[in-house]
Design a protein that fits this description.
Layout lengths: L6 H12 L1 H10 L4 H13 L2 H16 L2 E6 L21 H6 L3 H4 L3 H5 L1 H17 L4 H11 L5 E5 L17 E3 L2 E8 L9 E2 L2 H5 L13 E7 L13 E8 L6 E2 L10 E3 L25 E5 L10 H15 L7 E6 L7 H12 L4 E6 L13 E5 L3 H22 L21 H4 L12
Helix pairs in contact: 1-2, 2-13, 3-13, 4-13, 9-13
The chain binds nicotinamide-adenine-dinucleotide.
C-alpha cells in the first residue's frame, strides 16, 4: 500500500485484506492521514497476538463505557505534526540548539523581562506550529466515542496547543487545559484585576521573525560574551560578534578556537539576528495597559501566570465529575503523556482509583507501562503512535459493537464519589520538572 494512494483506494484494499470495518474507518478519515494509516495497517498485519488482544480489550472497554475521560500529553500531537518535549519526537526550534537552551530553560517567564524579543521569537514559533497544525483524525474519533455515551466525555490535557478546544463535541466546554494554552494571553505582570484575553492570531503572525535557513558548514557571526574568560567576567552584557560556522545538524555552532562560548545571537555577516523578533515589530501588548503581553501558559518558575481561565476549566471538570455515579463505567483513555512532568499520568491513575469500575487504556509510543496497582483494570498499548492506536481500536470497536452493547447491564445510580488527587490547577511544570543545574543563570 504505497504512499500517494487515495483514501478510497486504500479503503478498498483494506476492506479486501482486513475486513470492511477497517476499510470504512480509513475511508472516512480522508487522504491526508493515509500514509500514517497505511503504516498502522502494516503494524496490524505484523502485530503480535498480545498487541491485537490489547486492541480488542481496549475496543471492548470503549463499547461498554458510560463515560469517557480523555487525558492527553504531547505525544497526542505528534501525528498533527507537533513535537514533544522529550524523546524521539522532541520538537526543536533551531535557535535553541544554537543558544544551547533546552525547552525547560526557554519556557520561563523571566525571558519576557530580560530578552523579550527572544521570548516572543520562541512563542511565535510554537504559536504558528499549533495554530497552523490541524488536530489529526484521532481527535474526532475520540470525540465520537464520547458523544454516544450516557455521561459523555471530558478532556484533560497538559498540551498548550488548543487542539481539543477545536474538536467538535469536546471543546471548548469540556476541556481542562491544565497548563493553559497559546490561544490566550495575559499581561506579563499580574495583579488582582488581571484578565486573560483570546490571542489575536494576526497579531502573532505579524511578528517579523527571521527564518532559520542556515546550512551545515555555513559561515556566520555569533554573539558571545566579550569578557568571557577574564578573571572579572560576570553576568555583564558586554557582547561582541565573532566568526563561527554552522555544524552538521544545521543548528549548532562550531568555533575556530577550542573555547566553549556561551551563544547569545546568530546572524549572517552584518545581517539580522536569527534568534529574535526583528526590531521593526511591536511585541504583543495588553490593550488596556499597553504593557508587554505573554501567553497564558503555566511556565517553569512562573509566579505571574493568571489562573482565571484555567480555574474555570477546572471547575467545569469538577462539575462533570459530579454527574458521575461511583460505579460508573468510566473509561480513561490516556495518550502520549510523558513521565518527566507526570501531571497527566497521575490524573488518569487517580481517576481510575477514584471510580471503582473505571478502566484505563494507556496509549504511549515508549512509556506505556502501568503499575501493578491498576494492572487488572488497565490496558497498555505501546509501540504505536496515537493515531495508529486510536484508528485500530475504532475499527475493532465497529466490528465488536453490537456484541458490546448487548453485554452492558443497566447502570446503578448513586452519589458521586469524591475526586482523587486531580491535577491542581495551580500545579506548574516547575514543581514536577527537574530543571538543569544553572538554568536560572541562563535567563539573560
Ligand atoms: N502539543 C503541545 O501542546 C505540547 C508539545 C510539547 C510539549 N508540551 C508541554 O510539555 C509538557 C510535558 O508534556 P509531556 O509529558 O506530554 O511531554 P514529553 O515530551 O515529556 O513526553 C511525550 C510522551 O509522548 C510519548 N509519545 C511520543 N510520540 C508519541 C506518539 N506518536 N504517540 C503516542 N505517544 C507518543 C512519549 O513516549 C512520551 O511519553 C506539558 O506541560 C506540555 O505543556 C506541549
Amino acid at each position: 500500500m504505497g504512499a500517494g494512494a487515495s483514501a478510497k483506494e486504500i479503503a478498498e484494499q483494506v476492506a479486501e485484506a482486513s475486513g470492511p470495518e477497517l476499510g470504512k474507518t480509513l475511508s472516512a478519515l480522508g487522504t491526508e492521514n493515509c500514509e500514517k494509516l497505511a503504516r498502522a495497517l502494516e503494524i496490524w498485519d505484523s502485530s503480535t497476538a498480545a498487541l491485537r488482544a490489547n486492541i480488542t480489550r481496549a475496543a471492548k472497554l470503549v463499547g461498554e463505557a458510560e463515560a469517557l475521560l480523555i487525558c492527553t500529553g504531547a505525544g497526542m500531537g505528534v501525528d498533527s505534526g507537533l513535537g514533544t518535549y522529550r524523546g524521539r519526537h522532541a520538537g526543536v526550534w533551531s535557535p535553541l540548539k544554537a543558544l544551547r537552551l533546552d525547552y525547560d530553560e526557554i519556557v520561563r517567564p523571566g525571558w519576557f523581562s530580560t530578552d523579550p524579543r527572544l521570548a516572543w521569537a520562541f512563542w511565535h514559533f510554537c504559536h504558528q506550529a499549533y495554530v497552523r497544525g490541524q488536530p489529526h483524525a484521532g481527535y474526532d474519533i475520540l470525540s465520537n466515542w464520547g458523544t454516544s455515551l450516557k455521561y459523555g466525555a471530558f478532556s484533560v490535557t497538559s498540551n498548550v496547543d488548543g487542539h481539543w478546544a477545536r474538536t467538535e463535541g469536546v471543546g471548548p466546554g469540556k476541556i481542562f487545559e491544565v497548563h493553559g494554552a497559546v490561544t490566550h494571553m495575559q499581561p506579563l505582570e499580574k495583579d488582582e484585576n488581571t484578565k486573560v484575553w483570546p490571542t489575536t492570531d494576526k497579531e502573532i503572525e505579524a511578528l517579523s521573525v527571521p527564518t532559520w535557513d542556515l546550512k551545515s558548514g555555513e559561515a556566520v557571526e555569533v554573539q558571545v560574551d566579550a569578557d568571557a574568560g577574564a578573571p572579572e567576567a560576570g553576568e555583564g552584557h558586554n557582547r561582541k560578534w565573532i566568526p563561527a560556522h554552522i555544524a552538521a545538524d544545521g543548528c549548532s555552532i562550531t568555533f575556530p578556537d577550542p573555547k566553549r562560548h556561551d551563544v547569545f545571537g546568530v546572524r549572517r555577516a552584518g545581517g539580522t539576528d536569527l534568534c529574535r523578533v526583528h526590531e521593526s515589530s511591536k511585541l504583543p501588548q495588553c490593550s488596556a495597559t499597553g504593557k508587554l503581553a505573554r501567553p497564558n501558559i503555566v511556565m517553569f518558575d512562573d509566579r505571574n501566570v493568571c489562573y482565571q481561565r484555567i480555574h474555570q476549566q477546572s471547575a467545569a471538570w469538577a462539575s462533570w465529575g459530579e454527574t458521575l455515579p461511583p460505579d460508573v463505567r468510566l473509561l480513561i483513555v490516556e495518550i502520549g503523556a510523558g513521565k518527566t512532568i507526570p501531571t497527566i499520568r497521575r490524573t488518569s491513575e487517580s481517576e481510575a482509583r477514584t471510580f471503582r469500575s473505571a478502566n484505563l487504556v494507556r496509549i504511549n509510543l515508549d512509556d506505556s507501562e502501568v503499575g501493578k496497582e491498576l494492572a487488572d483494570r488497565a490496558v497498555s498499548i505501546g509501540g504505536l503512535g496515537a493515531l495508529e492506536a486510536i484508528t485500530l481500536i475504532d475499527a475493532e470497536l465497529k466490528r465488536l459493537k453490537p456484541a458490546c452493547s448487548k453485554a452492558v447491564p443497566a447502570p446503578k445510580r448513586g452519589a458521586s464519589p469524591k475526586r482523587g488527587a486531580s491535577p491542581k490547577p495551580a500545579a506548574s511544570p516547575p514543581a514536577a520538572a527537574k530543571t538543569k543545574a544553572g538554568a536560572a543563570t541562563k535567563v539573560r
